[in-house]
Amino acid sequence: MKGDRRWGWPGVGGAARRRRGAAFCGSGAAPGGTIARGLRGTAPAARGLTAGHTLLRPHPRVSLLLHRRSAAVSAALLVLLAAVMLASACLGQTYVSPAEVWHTLRTGSGPYDLIVGELRVPRIVVGALVGAALGLSGALVQSVTRNPLASPDVIGVGHGAAAATVLALSTGMVASPSAMPVISVAGGLAAAALVYVLAWRHGMQPNRFVLTGVGIGVALSAIVQLYLTDSELEAAEQIKLWLTGSLNGRGWEQAGPLAVVLLLCLPALVWAGRALRPLGLDPDTAAALGVRVDRVRLGLTVLGVVLAATATGAAGPIGFVALTSPQLARRLTRTPQLPLLCSALTGAFVLVAADLAARTLLPPLEIPVGALTSLVGGPYLLWLLGRRTATR
Amino acid sequence: MSPKNLAWPAAVLAVAAAGLLSLAVGTRAVPLSAVLDALLHGGGSPDALVVRSLRVPRTEVGLTAGAALGLAGAALQAVTRNPLADPGILGLSQGAAAGVVLALSFGLANGFGGYVWYAFAGAVVAACLVYGIAVRGRGGASPVKLALAGTALSAMTAGGTTVVLTSSSATLDQFRFWQVGALSGRDAGTVVDMLPFLLAGAVLVLACARGLDALALGDETARALGHRVQLVRGVAALGATLLTAAAVAAAGPIAFVGLAVPHLARRLVSGGHRAVLPLSALLGAALLVGADVAGRVVRAPAEVPAGVMTALVGVPVLVVLVRRRGTAS
Prior knowledge:
By secondary structure, chain A is mainly α. Chain A has helices spanning about 5, 10-25, 35-40, 70-90, 100-105, 115-145, 155-170, 180-200, 205-230, 235-245, 250-280, 285-290, 295-315, 320-335, 340-360, 370-385; strands spanning about 45, 55-60, 60-65. Chain A has a single domain (about 5-385), classed as ABC transporter involved in vitamin B12 uptake, BtuC (Orthogonal Bundle), CATH 1.10.3470.10. Mean pLDDT of chain A is about 75; it is low at about 1-50. Chain B is globular and about 65 Å long. Classes of the chains: A mainly alpha, B mainly alpha.
């Protein structure tokens, strides 16, 4: 945190500060519209300072540089997220009209309280929080590794969570895979720490990090495979379902810890929004600018791993959200680095929408949302590929 | 002799030792003399039966699949210019898995022999799709586009197979034993079925060895040196696809051999891909069969599948290699 002052790039600080406010609203899944109000309240004082940015002076002593496109995209994503959350509360095996949903939410009673208040809304909230956490952690990990194909899974989080769960199940510590978020969070953290320690040698080098992570991931998933073949079919089915990642039966008891973790991470995320930027440069340049590259990387990685592990504990290892959300968000905002706020919003939107589809596509069968995100994420990546003109 | 020159005899010795152990070690230990006797003269003793009907096919599958995976891994890492490339990256393993799942859920196949062709077809279709997608657009099939297309298709097919697996327990029950990657219970015909593809793949990949060396310098330099970049990449990828598809069809999606063996081979010899490719094949065969043998011993009388053992044995090796490689990559 001490390093902040020294980065002092003209214009960057202001934009980061703007992002700081924005990150606050989005990650906590705070009421929509806060950002929009903030924007309207502060008239642009100058234009054309930096291409694509607007200088905001809400107070004589505070000046912010706002990336106009990012702000617009964030607002649009918030609207989309709100819309899909509402749709998710309305649709399902029983249709509940939006008015009824609103009534139920406001009064906490009524004929649809069980369906909307106790089943759908908690699940939607968990979905949005998990999606936001995954999107954020994906952006952080991809920035640290400078690899668009990296995700928290690549550095061992999902595999660690799965292996810890499987070990706990096979030693009889717990009865059901979904009943043990603590163990899976611990497993994810431990695996990521192991990867980090093993990859550390005179500093952190992104390729080595990713390569070690892939290796450890292979070993951990081998343990899971062994359990799958060793166990009874019923236990194998259960663990397979958990491994796919599902929001089925998730509620406030999962949402609570996740929300707390996200809130606790907010100050760190504010720092991260700013610290990400120099990592886009090559390490030597960043170091020459006064960035302690290794420390920043460690900080960002820890943050990303904590977020991903908590999300995994809540919903199981849901694939592809962490991988695609930051890339999608960056293509929307057209910023040089991965935008944290937009990644979180994109992740939340994607996961809530995917869960809605998973619940409603093949009634009465419910597809695990993790399978659906992979099914949808694949074509998205292909589409991206088709559109891409330059190779990186 | 320098350590670099010792790599070849050591690798050959390792393959031979692993093969012999694979014939001798197991729930029923057979002395080496009896193994040789059974191989040379046949005979009807229980030992000879075990060796000839169970362990020989298993060892054959292990040796060929391991060699194919090692060779394919080395070629794929050169084609995609990505040290993480392995059969998974071009969507081959998942394609094969999708083929198996389809065959199982429609009741088309029973037993390991039945899966083979579906797995092979799935892997080949996946590879064609990946290449077809990556080759579109400007710049042709660049390494990044290949890797991205492979990852994308993998994820998609994984999602599809998961939908089937979570809804049909009968399919999961059979699929989990294929997916873990085991050499046990393979019949002798598997290798014979796959041999033409393995040979064709090996010839294609080895023919590209010089071109692959040039690719490592970058597309433009390779072109300036007189190599037809897209041709080299296409032929090598085709060869690697055939090798991997055949190996995965025969032995299941065995992780790590294709990923780690080329790294080891590159450390052991110099001389570019003309040396790295054959050494990768040898080391891959030794690793897979050795892992299979270890898997029979670790939890005797139960078995740890070879796919699990390769991962557990190989990962520490990979980590050490990655740590020793210095900062350049």
